[in-house]
Amino acid sequence: MEQLPGVSSVKSLVVVFCFIHLSLALQCLNDKEPCVNNATCLTFKNGTEYCRCAPGFLGEYCHHKDPCHPGFCLNGGNCSVLMSAGVPVPGSATCSCPLAYIGPHCQTPQNSTCYPNNPCANKGVCTLLTLNKSKCECPRGWTGEKCEHEDSCLSSPCANRGLCSSQSAGSYTCSCPPGYTGPRCLNDTDECVATPSTCQNEGLCVNTPGSYKCTCTPGFTGRHCESSYIPCSPSPCLNGGTCHQSSDISYSCHCLPGFNGTNCEHNIDDCPGHQCANGGTCMDGVNTYNCQCPPEWTGQHCTEDVDECRLQPNTCQNGGTCSNLFGSYVCVCVNGWSGPDCSENIDDCATASCTPGSTCIDRVASFVCLCPYGKTGLLCHRDDACISNPCREGSQCDTNPISGMFNCNCPPGYVGNTCNSDRDECSISEKEKL
Ligand SMILES: *[C@@H]1O[C@H](CO)[C@@H](O)[C@H](O)[C@H]1NC(C)=O
Ligand SMILES: *[C@@H]1O[C@H](CO)[C@@H](O)[C@H](O)[C@H]1NC(C)=O
Ligand SMILES: *[C@@H]1O[C@H](CO)[C@@H](O)[C@H](O)[C@H]1NC(C)=O
Ligand SMILES: *[C@@H]1O[C@H](CO)[C@@H](O)[C@H](O)[C@H]1NC(C)=O
Ligand SMILES: *[C@@H]1O[C@H](CO)[C@@H](O)[C@H](O)[C@H]1NC(C)=O
Ligand SMILES: *[C@@H]1O[C@H](CO)[C@@H](O)[C@H](O)[C@H]1NC(C)=O
Ligand SMILES: *[C@@H]1O[C@H](CO)[C@@H](O)[C@H](O)[C@H]1NC(C)=O
Asked: Would you give the DSSP letter of residue 429?
């Protein structure tokens, strides 16, 4: 135990050194300083501050010219520079050039299938894959390997989600989805005229746009009426209902409580005649219902009182005293607060008598008057005696904030109410010697 104070003082010494070290790190004075050369001073998420340099500058404070200034590498080349102890090595900037450009600044195009002769017509952009392999990126309206065709798909001529492909000489072809035909996929295929007929077992075929429907004769089912119908296989009854076959082609569903309808598809509304009290809202469930109660009530049917005074956080704020009532509560607020939960700060400025021309600041159960120049006092109703410069030149005048009176702080060698009396230092030194 005796050792601890010593240990902790060593620790605090270490902490102090750490702070000194940290305070040597870069610190933003505003959004620019101490960074230079138009850099921005920013803060990382972890609190460390740094300079984000403008293009063309480097270094902790952006105080070094970046040899990789914009425009050093041309044609999309990437510039890199050697750094030594945070300082760029002069003349060490190098460019890494994209395909087909060479030279220290990537300034010289190499002969390739793109250069000097651009094979892409109509302002197509030639992109090299290798030196002797390229592709054309065509502007809107042009297509083809060398952008030589007008793009006849530009007007989206294929209807009904047909896929357009542009041909030479301004023509196009549409590849149509099932159900549509014709050069622009505009013609609906009538599936019902097909032989053998689309719907089997004497099912009735109805053509629809892009498709068709089969209405099956009794005893058959399936999209094409291809299967024989077995009433309860599979069961059409939903929500756990049980299927009973009543003839070769009919069935009935026996539903679980809370459901009805031919296939038990309907959840019966249990809310009619509900018992949610005190403004509670009924929410239908399965064969039951729940009550959503207003905040003052709880319990299955919203008939139990909520004791608001026992809730966390306290219902009555700012030190108010809470009293629970059946179905509500009251707060008795402490001085300066009001409102049903004592959260409203009474505007003391509404009744304050700050002198006209001053600014009233509302506090809790009080107010402060901010006085204009030349006024003082709690209500700014007094004149500031210092305004008339009563103190001798070279002394400091202080105003008493209550009375408005002045008090002069005299420079060495002067005394008196207004510091006007020259002090007799000789007599003082005599006294002090005694
Ligand atoms: C600094 O940056 C601003 C905006 O980015 C620009 O308008 C201004 O010209 C720059 N000044 C210098 C000295 O680079
Ligand atoms: C703060 O974060 C930056 C970047 O995420 C990192 O470079 C720096 O080292 C971090 N500083 C500290 C003190 O963790
Ligand atoms: C330049 O750098 C970017 C990003 O790192 C990279 O995607 C690109 O391929 C580089 N270009 C060259 C020519 O090295
Ligand atoms: C590049 O092509 C031009 C003309 O097409 C030719 O004069 C020149 O010699 C070629 N350069 C190289 C390095 O092949
Ligand atoms: C493509 O260029 C490479 C080297 O530049 C060469 O070896 C190859 O034969 C060329 N291929 C064609 C098809 O010209
Ligand atoms: C498409 O429909 C039009 C008009 O209904 C008709 O004149 C044309 O012959 C049809 N084309 C095909 C390929 O069915
Ligand atoms: C389901 O039952 C409710 C109430 O019992 C009734 O009003 C409703 O018409 C029934 N619905 C069906 C589809 O049978």
From this structure: H
Q: Are 77 and 97 in contact (CB under 8 A)?
A: yes
Nearest CA to ligand 2 atom 9: 48
pLDDT of residue 24: 55
Q: Which one, of 136, 137, 139, 141, lies nearest residue 166 by Cα?
A: 141
Q: What angle do CA 90, 96, 102 make, to 5 degrees?
A: 105
What ligand is nearest to the CA atom of residue 129?
5
Distance 57 CA to ligand 3 centre (A): 20
pTM over cut 0.70:
no
Model pLDDT, residue 313:
85
**Separation in Å, CA 393 to CA 389, 390, 407, 414, 418:** 8, 9, 14, 11, 9
Q: What is the dihedral of CA 217, 221, 226, 229, to 10 degrees?
A: -90
Q: Ligand 6: which residues within 6 Å by Cβ? A: 181-182, 187
**Residue (of 276, 274, 281) closest to 301 by Cα position:** 276
- Radius of gyration of the chain, Cα coordinates, nearest whole angstrom: 46
- Specify the ligand 6 atom closest to the Cα of 186: 1
Please indicate whether residue 78, judged by its CB atom, sits closer than 6 Å to ligand 3. yes
Residue ranges around ligand 7 (CB below 6 Å): 260-261, 266, 268
Phi and psi at 269, nearest 5°, equal -75, 110
Q: Token pair of 372, please?
A: 């204009």
Give the integer Cα–Cα distance in Å for 44 and 38. 19
H or E element: which one contains 165?
Answer: strand 163-166
Task: Copy the structure tokens of residue 340.
Answer: 């049903």
Rounded Cα distance, 121 and 135, in Å:
12
Ligand 3 pocket, residue 242 CB under 6 Å: no
| Cα distance between residue 335 and residue 30, in whole Å | 43
Question: Which parts of the chain sit beneath pLDDT 70?
Answer: 1-24, 86, 427-434
- Which residue's CA is minimally distant from atom 14 of ligand 4? 111
Quick: pLDDT tens for 275-287.
999 999 999 999 9
3-state secondary structure of 354: coil
Percent helix, strand, coil in the chain, to 5, is 10, 30, 60
